[in-house]
Design a protein that fits this description.
heterodimer, A: 376 residues, alpha+beta, MetI-like fold, 3-stranded antiparallel β-sheet, 8 strands, B: 297 residues, mainly alpha, 13 helices, 0% strand, flat, disordered N terminus
Chain lengths: 376, 297
């Protein structure tokens, strides 16, 4: 087209820089939050002097044996002099080696400065330490398993419904009946609806004094409202969330399906018709295989978003009886509740690993299927 | 890209040499039955989309008494703006709505300004690494918001940017930028290159050709992309609730007070949040496939 020029890179630079700052950096921070904790290490000195060379480094809470002790004096900032003990100690360092060196009384807890044989390290310089504490805390939290299971159940229920409905919508739009433009606009309305609004909308249907009960009452099927959303009614709560999500997020799949359908040459369809294929056969053997790349993209996109389902669940169930991973992330982060950003970061990373894992799995599955069909 | 306006192909009966009149009639009847069933299905799905919106609208424009009443009416009779007024005058709602609008506008401006050059580069230049950059932008789009919100909240606290309207806008820009770039790129790709070339031949510098020829032609599409950005930011709730405390945006404020508020507040709030999306779909309808369709290319 043209010879090499720097122009496109310059044009892209601001956006790329922005994304690096707001994606790469937070990712790095996220790892640090999840797997590092504040800690301290104590440096031993070669001589009983603050400014002496460093010996080894000992972790906090290490028990050290006292080999020798010295009573020295230190000058306080106000000029007064007070006695201070120095101990020559032996203990295990960070790497498990035995080290010896001098520490003063401020850094260790010791029962009796003159007679005790051991001391415990209690102070040191602040540092960061790698830890799985936060991850363990997440995995051991009783809500974790429930959140994970609910999230997975929702995905398993929502995605097939969504894709079936989206394909039907797409075929309707593509059948070019009169007014299909109007149908397209109507089907696309939920594209701009937030998950919170959709949650409130379906809450208005399923709540005790809601539209579903009103309807059942009006047609005479019930005489007092049935409480769909209550702790003992998990199935109904999940059903309400599934409906809300299918209602809201099918549109995006529909648009992807329609643009995929538009790319399918009419020749294939006409060939199918000429050879007398039924509608179902045409869908099964012509449309779906040709639509596969589009469906795959939509599937990955929807799965990743489904792992983050949040506001719908909170709006419909309150987020206590029924919880999902993103809601737990928020609960741990929330200053008014657990106020622990570290565990929240573990949750966030967990969601990311799950989404990436599933996306890779999809891609692999599709590829191996293609290879298998080549070998036929 | 095929548009929806392409005339309908005649997909009617198969040509058959010795088809009798009866055969043809039968085929016609079968055809119209199928057409009819497609219509029924299409209308049912349209109802499935529209009825919940109608219901929440009914709630928003009924009196608070009617909202609490059981069984509920299925139409706003008698109509009233009392519930809506109550919602809009609840403490913190107007402020939150204002915050939402400010955040969305900053996001829109930043995102569009960054996306125009980037989108143009992707649409018009072939350069080493182009596909990698495209793919990178696409994959960033599919990145969980959840992962970004927690560390960014902590970082913003460190930088003294926590609970600020503009810092939430910075975050929203990061979330919307990949989408905006791809949409803007597809809009630029739709502007014929010949026009730009012609401008150059008549002595325009590349910058002037862009400014005088390409940009005006791309403007409606860019405006649609900007509206999309606005709606994405207006709807976003997870990052908003993590990054703000007193400066809540509307969804964050509503979500935060959800368990403490009554049904009239919830329903009016739900409807109020819907309004921009209803307007949005009207404005972007021509660009629907620019926005989402090219995800799979």
């Amino acid at each position: 087209m043209k010879k090499f020029s720097w122009t496109p890179y310059l044009l892209l630079l601001p956006s790329l820089l922005y994304l690096v700052i707001f994606f790469a950096y937070p990712m790095y921070e996220s790892f640090r939050l999840a797997f590092q904790k504040d800690s301290a290490i104590l440096s031993l000195r070669d001589e009983p002097d603050e400014n002496a060379e460093l010996g080894g480094q000992v972790k906090l809470q290490t028990i050290v044996t006292i080999l020798d002790r010295l009573q020295l004096e230190e000058t306080l900032p106000n000029g007064r002099i007070r006695p201070i003990f120095w101990f020559q100690v032996e203990g295990e360092d960070i790497n498990g080696n035995t080290v010896t060196g001098w520490v003063n009384q401020k850094s260790v807890f010791i029962e009796n400065r003159r007679t005790s044989e051991t001391a415990r390290v209690v102070a040191g310089e602040p540092t960061k330490e790698w830890t799985t504490d936060f991850a363990e805390r997440m995995f051991n939290d009783y809500r974790f398993k429930r959140a994970l299971i609910t999230t997975l159940i929702l995905i398993v229920l929502i995605l097939p419904l969504q894709f079936t409905l989206a394909i039907i919508m797409g075929l309707i739009i593509q059948s070019r009946i009169r007014g299909s433009n109007i149908f397209l606009y109507i089907y696309a309305i939920p594209l701009g609806v937030s998950d919170l609004a959709s949650g409130i909308l379906w809450y208005s249907i399923f709540t005790q004094r809601g539209f579903l009960n009103s309807f059942l009452d009006t047609v005479g099927l019930i005489d007092k409202p049935y409480i769909f959303i209550q702790a003992s009614n998990r199935e109904w709560m999940i059903a309400a969330i599934v409906l809300a999500e299918v209602w809201r997020a099918t549109s995006i799949v529909m648009v992807i399906v329609v643009s995929g359908l538009q790319a399918i040459s009419r020749d294939y369809m006409e060939a199918g018709e000429v050879f007398g294929a039924t509608l179902w056969q045409r869908i099964r053997y012509i449309i779906l295989p040709l639509l596969k790349p589009s469906l795959q993209v939509a599937l990955i996109l929807r799965t990743i978003l489904a792992f983050q389902v949040f506001a719908v669940v909170v709006a419909i169930t309150g987020g206590d009886v029924l919880t999902v991973l993103a809601n737990e992330t928020y609960r741990w982060y929330d200053p008014a509740r657990y106020n622990n950003a570290n565990v929240a970061a573990v949750y966030a990373l967990f969601i990311m690993v799950l989404s990436l894992g599933i996306s890779l799995f999809y891609l692999r599955a599709v590829r191996s299927q293609e290879e298998a069909s080549k070998n036929l | 890209m095929t548009t929806l306006e392409t005339p309908m192909n005649s997909t009617t009966t198969r040509p058959s040499m010795e088809a009798t009149a009866a055969d043809r009639n039968r085929a016609k009847r079968r055809h119209s039955i199928r057409r009819g069933s497609i219509y029924v299905l299409a209308c049912l799905i349209a109802l499935w989309i529209l009825v919940p919106i109608w219901l929440i609208g009914t709630m928003a424009f009924s009196t608070p008494e009617d909202v609490r009443n059981y069984p509920k009416h299925f139409a706003p009779i008698p109509a009233s703006t009392e519930t809506m007024d109550f919602f809009l005058n609840t403490d913190g709602i107007q402020r939150a709505a204002r915050n939402s609008i400010v955040v969305a506008i900053i996001t829109l401006i930043l995102s569009t300004l960054l996306a125009i050059p980037a989108g143009y580069a992707i649409a018009r230049y072939l350069f080493p690494g182009r596909d990698a950059i495209r793919l990178g932008i696409l994959s960033v789009r599919a990145f969980p918001i959840v992962v970004l919100a927690v560390p960014l909240a902590i970082t913003f606290i460190k930088w003294d940017m926590y609970d600020k309207v503009y810092s939430l806008a910075l975050m929203h820009t990061a979330l919307t930028l990949p989408t905006t770039i791809l949409v803007v790129a597809s809009v630029f790709a739709g502007v014929p290159y010949e026009l730009e070339e012609a401008a150059r031949i008549f002595g325009c510098t590349p910058a002037k050709a862009f400014w005088k020829v390409v940009l005006p032609l791309a403007m409606p599409g860019i405006a649609a992309a900007a509206i999309l950005t606005f709606v994405l930011s207006w709807n976003e709730v997870f990052a908003a609730i993590l990054l703000t405390l007193t400066n809540r945006t509307l969804p964050a404020q509503i979500l935060y007070t959800l368990d403490k508020s009554g049904d009239p507040f919830k329903f009016a709030g739900g409807f109020f949040m819907l309004i921009p999306s209803l307007i949005f779909i009207f404005f972007i309808r021509r660009y629907l496939f620019n926005m989402y369709g090219q995800l799979n290319k």
